[in-house]
Write a structure and sequence with these properties.
elongated; about 45% helix; about 15% strand; 3-stranded antiparallel sheet; 10 helices; about 280 residues; single chain; alpha+beta
Length: about 280
Amino acid sequence: MATLLLLSTFLSYADIKNVTTENITIAGSCSQCKEGIEAAAFEKNISKANWDKETKVAAVTYDSKKTSLDAILKKIALAGYDNQSYLAPDDAYAKLEECCRYERASKNEVVAQKKMSGHEHGATSMETAAKAGSADADPLKPVLDAYYAVKDALVSSDGNATSAKATSLVKALKAVKMDELGSEQHMVWMKVMKDLNFDAEHIEETKDLGHQRDHFSSLSENMYKLIKSAKPSQAVYYQHCPMAKEGKGANWLSQVSTIKNPYYGAQMLNCGKTTETLK
């Protein structure tokens, strides 16, 4: 029996490389909390947690080259559970089922608990973390700049240049550090990151302008959601071409208000209008 248990434990973590495991106190009260905490921590082949209802301690295991403990604890807090690094937003806590309404500690109590556990920095509310993030350099600026480069190459109707610029966009997307994003932007990022990578990689893999523009359309929709979720460091113009996609219309983001159409280039360079300014 002991051998089977050991083998089971090994197999459950074999899919995670560069394994780091840390024991972290996370607030909760029932088996449903366990499900919520572990679901928030889980990312296939990257991270998982095993939370104990009695001790309130979770063994958090993760690939240290692909994520960080801080990023995982932020996701857990956004799901409604106070922990040693972040206090859950009030609205996230309020959405928990009645049986999950654990008694919340004050921020000072959580900080003291964290120091006792050997971690150096104190707990932070998600609202405070979001404000702190906005005061620093925009963590998504490299992504937006790389996106603009792809857009400008499409305006020039240069398939080779578009592919090359998409390579930089793919790298910028993979370099995003989730723990530097504000709370709302983090949630949007988790929803759109796979689609952003999918479209950027397809634009990179082809020199065909038609195929590139098809993927640029869906790429732009998800970029809009991401940039709109937090104030960008500079104004972003959301623009629309009614003729693209066989008359269905398509959008894009631009760093300038002047219309330069990436779906037709010189053929209809000024076709379109600005529908929204994000700032």
